[in-house]
Structures are given as C-alpha cells and as structure tokens.
Amino acid sequence: MNEIINAIPEYVITAVVSTAIFYLMNAGKNLLHSKVQHAKTTQSKELWSFIEQVANTAVNSLVSKDITGDAKFAQATAIVQDALAKQGFTNVDVKAIESAVQSAYEKSPLTPTSNEKPYVFKNLEQPNQDKPKVQDNVNNTQPVEAK
Asked: Which residues contact 84 (CB under 8 A, 6 or more apart)?
C-alpha cells in the first residue's frame, strides 16, 4: 500500500510533464506553420514585384518597334518568361505573366492612348427637363409644370 501511495506523485508528475510536452509541441508546430506561411507570402510578393519590373522593362523596350500590338504583347510575354526562367522561376502561370504585361502596357506613359471625346449631337431637342416644377395653389398634392 505504501508503494502505491508513494507512486502517485510520480504518476502525476509524469502526466503533467507529458501534457506540457504535448502542448509545447503543438505550439511549436503552429509557430513553424505561421513562419512558413509568412516566408511563402514574402517570396510571392517579391516574385510579383520582379515580374512587374521585368514586364515594365519589356513593354518599354517594345514601344518603338514597328509591329502589331498582338505581336508586341506576345514578344513582351516571351521576354518576361525568359527572364523568369533565367532566374529559376519556372512554375509561374502564363496567365499571371500575361496580366502583368497587360498591366504594364496600361500603366506605361510611352504607350499611346486614345483621348478622343465622345461625339455630341447638336441641334437635337432636349426633353422638357429644364422647366421648374411649381405647385398649384388649389391642390397642393401634385406638382405641375410652369406656365
């Protein structure tokens, strides 16, 4: 009986230490997971920044070439893909590269834009929207057009 009473504190200590180790392992796993996610996010952000820089450079280098817009777009996309492959980024989606090139074309001050104003038809009669509404003194519930 004495041995059982003396063994109880050992069992309690073992259970507490085991539980503490279990919780510390879970906390460490969660901390490690968050660090991995942060590293992936940072790497993805840097990759996007690099893609945008290369796309801007490719677009600006092709502005003065005398080829069609589709050919410029295809060539700029190929330039970005080649630059990424040289840096070791081979798993970048083509749609992402194309959207970066399109964004670079839209942002570039060197690409021509259309500043045409819409054509305004003249001498067309405007509807009676300019007449002010006044209220009749007899019936105050309905507004009527000015006479």
From this structure: 50, 51, 54, 90, 92, 97
Consecutive H or E run containing 60: helix 2-62
> Tokens 């502005």 — which residue?
63
Report pLDDT digits (tens) over 95-138. 999 999 998 888 877 666 655 555 555 555 555 555 566 555 55
Q: For residue 133, what are the β-bridge partners?
A: 145
Average pLDDT score over residue span 67-81 = 89
The C-alpha angle 119, 124, 126, rounded to 5 degrees, equals 110
